[in-house]
Automatic annotation (TrEMBL), chains A, B:
Keywords (A to Z) from UniProt: Manganese, Metal-binding, NAD, Oxidoreductase
Protein name (record): D-malate dehydrogenase [decarboxylating]
EC number(s) stated in the UniProt entry for this protein: 1.1.1.83, 1.1.1.93, 4.1.1.73
Taxonomic superkingdom: Bacteria
Protein task: Has multiple catalytic activities. Apart from catalyzing the oxidation of (+)-tartrate to oxaloglycolate, also converts meso-tartrate to D-glycerate and catalyzes the oxidative decarboxylation of D-malate to pyruvate.
Functional pathway: Carbohydrate acid metabolism; tartrate degradation; D-glycerate from L-tartrate: step 1/1; Carbohydrate acid metabolism; tartrate degradation; 2-hydroxy-3-oxosuccinate from L-tartrate: step 1/1; Carbohydrate acid metabolism; tartrate degradation; 2-hydroxy-3-oxosuccinate from meso-tartrate: step 1/1
Catalytic activity: (R)-malate + NAD(+) = pyruvate + CO2 + NADH; tartrate + NAD(+) = 2-hydroxy-3-oxosuccinate + NADH + H(+); (2R,3R)-tartrate + H(+) = (R)-glycerate + CO2; (2R,3S)-tartrate + NAD(+) = 2-hydroxy-3-oxosuccinate + NADH + H(+)
Cofactor field: K(+); Mg(2+); Mn(2+)
Domain Isopropylmalate dehydrogenase-like stretches: 5-350
Species whose genome carries this gene: Sphingobium fuliginis (strain ATCC 27551)
Length: 354, 354
């Protein structure tokens, strides 16, 4: 049998609650579609590793993780123990950079059974991808402070964009658009205000577009683009964005389709020089953790994205059909979707529906 | 009679079409409320001044503008003639900095007659302010390019935040919150990802909060905050944000309440060391310019904000009541709000309704 080695990092809070459901569904899909999942669990999280060692991961974390076919990630963060920027830069953001997962891929899709906050929208109306640059840009660690603690205090942080880093994510986005029916790409910019990096981003988009004559493209400034997500979400097909803008759009998009609780994300190294990482869009949610009520769909949908990445396209499709079946059934949904199911009940229902 | 000197800069595209309606309403309010408006018009725009001189404004623009009580601004930008970052940095963004208009104040309010894209929301449900830092932050002009034109190309732009610049806008926002019924302030951050400037921003918020014990405050990361604007817009009272985040939120907010076509904005120098500037949130809209169909409400609402700033509070209130009356009347609305009125018809209706 085909065997995939998966590094499993549940993390903190509801990450620990939704992960078992993701695994349940993965194992069920594996047994039905004739492949095996080999799991190696890691406790790299605030409440586990950090609480004991004062760092998010051991120095030899790469060796400990080994060379898995993919990483299945829950959610990290527990501000009572460690500030978010320390925990995230010590784990998730580090993986993205160190494993060169330069594409963050997130679907925005209106699913049956998920109440849409936008008036008059039906499943099928909204269906697009956000392709986010995932290793550089506004998420830099370069900068610092001067005149600290005085009235003259100045804090500087640099946005760093490279042609290497920008072109490769643009290429991925154009390639993706070329495979789609509508073949349309929208670039998120802010070249009227952020007047050094963003006009240059626009130029790189125009350059790259020349290689894809079948793909139509346009651009919106990020301010009006967020407005368009609300007003005309059916307009979009593939949206490509810098690290920060992609972060914003890939939370806003799922909110426009009802909830970030069901949204998945792939942190992808398209060159496969290192493992890719799959995680729900939601965080560790300390406010609802420990009650068994978190929605496991984001984690499960991430499992489907992971299987697709591994080439198990049929199994991935089967999981997504099961998700749609269960979401359409009020009794099987979790409380955030006005259902009564626990995390586990919802997860079991999806596993059973495959 | 009380007389106010106003610098009038209609700008480009629909800026030129909505400005006469703003002026019409101002003059009507003046005659009814016993004050006078002294206008000085300037053609600082792409299609006028730039087309003739190759720059957006003359070197002595400050002298030409003089020392008005306020600036009434339409919209600038005409990308066929000059790239947006050149035109905006040469006019609007320059005013904001040179006149130290460090607060950009924008209401988010669901108005009668404006169809709301969010399901089940009524006028009254959504009513808050976005307070945006307006002179520094992500809109810096510091940075540059290396290895230009090669595969090693690197582009850097610095976000610059100062204690001086941050504290004063936070103070303004807390003061505003303290005057409101709900006394609630939300700070937009991204301290989990933008790990140098934003954790510091959070610290400044906490420091400032100590001076306002009656104001409750919380913070959201910008990604989830945009999601909350869509999912729970009734949660907000005063939202304070950096330059870029405020830019995004003050387009998204008006979109969540129907359209950016009616939204106004004040670029305010609270210390009154230089004139403040009032403008609609929308841009010059080359796509619909010249057809007389643009919605003049953003410009007119800006006139009301300007009068309030000048101390003509009653006249400002009267204009807002007239705006609400006219918006509630389908026949008097412009096409973007499914009406049939022209820009001028809508403007006249509002002037008559005062
Ligand atoms: C035109 C542009 C530079 C401007 C900005 O980003 O500040 C506009 O979007 C605004 O919000 O006033
Ligand atoms: C937790 C945070 C650092 C992270 C990000 O901003 O990238 C998250 O919001 C995401 O989108 O994966």
């Amino acid at each position: 049998t085909r065997t995939y080695s998966i590094s499993v990092i549940p993390g903190d809070g509801i990450g620990k609650e939704v992960m078992p459901e993701g695994i349940r569904v993965l194992e069920r899909a594996a047994s039905l579609y004739g492949f095996a999942i080999e799991q190696k669990w890691q406790d790299f999280a605030c409440c586990d590793y950090y609480a004991r060692h004062g760092v998010m991961m051991p120095e030899d974390w790469k060796a400990q993780i080994g060379n898995p076919d993919a990483i299945f990630f829950g959610a990290v963060g527990w501000p009572d123990i460690v500030p978010d920027h320390v925990s995230l830069w010590g784990s998730l953001l580090q993986f993205r950079r160190e494993y060169d997962q330069y594409v963050n891929l997130r679907p925005v899709r209106l699913m049956p059974g998920v109440p849409c906050p936008l008036a008059g929208r039906e499943p099928g109306d909204i269906d697009f991808w956000v392709v986010r640059e995932n290793t550089e840009g506004e998420y830099s660690s370069v900068g610092g402070k001067m005149f600290s603690g005085t009235d003259r205090e100045v804090v500087i942080q640099e946005t760093v964009m490279t042609r290497h880093g920008t072109d490769r994510v643009l290429r991925y986005a154009f390639e993706l658009a070329a495979t789609r029916e509508r073949k349309h790409l929208t670039s998120a910019t802010k070249s009227n205000g952020i007047a050094i990096t963003m006009p240059w981003w626009d130029e790189r988009v125009e350059e790259m577009a020349k290689n894809y004559p079948t793909v139509a493209h346009d651009k919106y400034h990020i301010d009006i683009l967020t407005a368009q997500f609300v007003l005309n979400p059916d307009r979009f097909d593939v949206v490509v964005a810098s690290n920060l803008f992609g972060d914003i759009l890939s939370d806003l998009g799922p909110a426009c389709t009802g909830t970030i609780g069901v949204a998945p994300s792939g942190n992808i190294n398209p060159d496969r020089t290192a493992p890719s990482l799959f995680e729900p869009v939601h965080g560790s949610a300390p406010d609802i953790a420990g009650r068994g009520i978190a929605n496991p769909v984001g984690q499960i949908w991430s499992a489907a994205m992971m299987l697709e990445h591994l080439g198990e396209v049929e199994a991935a499709g089967a999981i997504m059909r099961a998700v749609e079946t269960v979401l359409a059934e009020p009794a099987l949904r979790t409380g955030d979707l006005k259902g009564k199911a626990t995390t586990e009940q919802c997860g079991r229902a999806i596993a059973d529906a495959i």
